[in-house]
Amino acid sequence: MKHDYEVRLLLGSTAVLSSNNKLIEIVLSTFKMPPTTTKLNVQFLDKGSLDLYATSWSAHIRKIKNKKDLELTYKKRYTIWESDNNAVFNLANNDGSNTDKKTYEAQVE
Length: 109
Description:
The chain is of the alpha+beta class. It has one domain (13-95). 25% of the residues lie in helices and 22% in strands. It contains 4 helices and 5 strands; from the N terminus they run βααβαββαβ.
């Protein structure tokens, strides 16, 4: 299975946003981002006690503006040991993410 990689950065808003809450030019150019934005609504599916999150799972529904369909996402978080992605992929496969139907996209964050 081919994996999609996503990198998340926790950046202070004053370092990346202008006074009108738009991304500053250096952020747009560094990450090759478009100057436009896309509105989306996200609803997480869990109890207030975060039972799913406590087991390293998260589930949510996304609605992207101007798109007809909803997107349902399930995520299982695994710890990567000493940059050994293959060990984590093997563990995920053993947990059942190696479906032959390929009706989902795998992503590494």
